Amino acid sequence: MKSILVVEDDKRTNEIICDYLEISGYRVHSAYDGRTALNILSKSSVDLAIIDIMMPRMDGFELSKRINDKSDCFIMFLTARSEEADKLRGFEHGAVEYVTKPFSPKVLVARADALLKLKDNKNTAVQKGELIIDMSSYLVEAQGKRIELTSKEYELLFLLIRNEGRVMKRDVIIQRVWGYDYFGDGRVLDTYIKTLRKKLMGSAKYIKTVIGIGYKFEVGEND
Q1: Residue 211: phi, psi to the nearest 5?
Q2: Per 3-state DSSP, what percentage of the chain is helix, strand, and coil (rounded to 5)?
Q3: CA–CA separation, 51 vs 95, rounded Å?
Q4: Where are the beta strands (DSSP E) in the chain?
C-alpha cells in the first residue's frame, strides 16, 4: 500500500484531503506543521508528500528542502500562492507537482495517482554511453562518478532518455515535467538544461539542442 503524507495547517482542508486519499486506498499520515511532518518521516516510509507552503514553525519550502536531503519521496505543493515566482521556487525546491487553491479533492487524488504510477515505472536502471540512471533509487552516474540531481533534474533527464533519439519540443517537455497547468516562464527549461549539463560533465554531450524546437537525448556510435 502506498503511503502519503499530508502537511496542511488548516484542519478542515487536511481532513478532507486525508479522507479522499484513504477512500482511494492509500495509507495516510497527517501533520499540521513542518516539524511534525519531519518527525513522521523519520519513523515512516512515505511515497508522496502533499505540502502547503504557508505554515507555522516551518514553511513548505524549507520542509521540502529537508525532505529532499533525507528521502526520495515525491513532493506536491498545495497552496494558495499562485504567482509565477512561487511556482518556480516550488519546482526549484524539488516539487514534481504544484497545485493551487481552491482545488478539487478528486482531481488532487488523480494527480497523486499519476505521480505514484510514474514513480512505480522508474524501476529499471539503464546505461547510455557513459551515463547510468536508475530512477528507482534516484541514482545517476556519469563517467563512473555519482551525480547528485534534484528531483526535477531527474525528471527532465529521465524524460529525455525515455525518448532517446526523438526531438522533444520545448512545450512538451515543460508539460511533462512541470505539469499541464504550468504557464510560467519557458526559460526555466533552459536553466535546468544548463544546470543538468554542468552536473553531467562529459556526458552532457548526449543532450542535444535542436534550435527553434527543443532538445533530444542521443548517444553516438562512438560514445
Answers
A1: -55, 130
A2: 45, 20, 35
A3: 10
A4: 3-7, 27-31, 48-51, 74-79, 97-100, 125-128, 131-134, 139-142, 145-147, 168-169, 207-210, 214-217
Summarize pLDDT for 105-143 with one digit per residue, the tens. Answer: 999 999 898 788 766 655 556 778 888 887 666 678 887
Distances (CA, A) of 41 to 21, 56, 70: 18, 18, 9
User: Model-level pTM?
Assistant: 0.58
pLDDT digits (tens, 9 = 90+) for 119-129: 665 555 677 88
Backbone φ and ψ for 30, nearest 5 degrees, come out as: -130, 140
Give the domains, in start order, of the chain with CATH numbers.
3-120 (3.40.50.2300), 123-217 (1.10.10.10)
